[in-house]
Amino acid sequence: MPTRCTTRPTKARRAAPYAGAALAVAAAALTGARAAGPAGSWYRSLDKPRWQPPSWVFPAVWTPLYASIAWSAGHALGRVRGRERAALAAAYGTNLTLNAGWTWLFFGLRSPAAGVAGSLLLDADTLDLIRRTARHDPAAAAALAPYAGWCLFATALSGSLARRNG
Fold first, then answer.
1. CA of 158: how far to CAs of 30, 116, 130, 151, in Å?
2. Digit-coded pLDDT (tens) for 33-48
């Protein structure tokens, strides 16, 4: 009878999915931040709804959201192998690309309407990411719920900005 290896993965092997996820999330955050830059005169000139949060709220919210995305990806990717792992990693990558892309559409193009389009794509993709993640790791999927909520709020805000500013 063949013997089965019962050793547990090393700490480094268990940490690898988290490290990779953290690097991917950091790259998306930095890419998006480059497009947004400091709040310029264009953004300050927009007619904004009264319910828009003050500017300091955005980094205060995005920091823990990005941390939860990285944790979710690392946790879920550490539990799947092979093609399922590759497909889930691609889903997280697509979502992070759409996340960074929204900033380029809104701020880079200076277009609230383009921001709405990007935001709707991000919303749909985030909900699909939660569904995909839940198949493998319900806790990791649940960790994405605040991110999905914030993205939906951002869609509403982008829509209001697009309506108010033609």
1. 21, 5, 22, 10
2. 777 765 678 888 999 9
What token pair was written down for 2?
């063949």
pTM of the model: 0.85
Asked if 117 and 102 count as a contact pair (C-beta separation under 8 A), the reply is: no
Name residue, tokens 């990693």: 89
- The owner of tokens 């609230």 is 112
Contact 128, 162 (CB under 8 A): no
Q: What is the per-residue pLDDT across 76-122, written as a single tens digit (0 to 9) for each?
A: 999 999 999 999 999 999 999 999 999 999 998 999 999 999 999 99
Contact 39, 106 (CB under 8 A): no
Residue/partner pairs of 39-43 with CB below 8 Å, 24 or more apart: 42/110, 43/107
The single-letter code of the amino acid at 162 is A
> Rounded to the nearest 5 degrees, what angle is found at the Cα of 26, between the Cα atoms of 20 and 31?
130
pLDDT tens per residue, range 148-157:
999 999 999 9
- Three-class SS string for 45-90? HCCCCCCCCCCCHHHHHHHHHHHHHHHHHHHHHCCCCHHHHHHHHH
> Considering only CA atoms, which of 36, 1, 166, 30 is closest in space to residue 108?
36
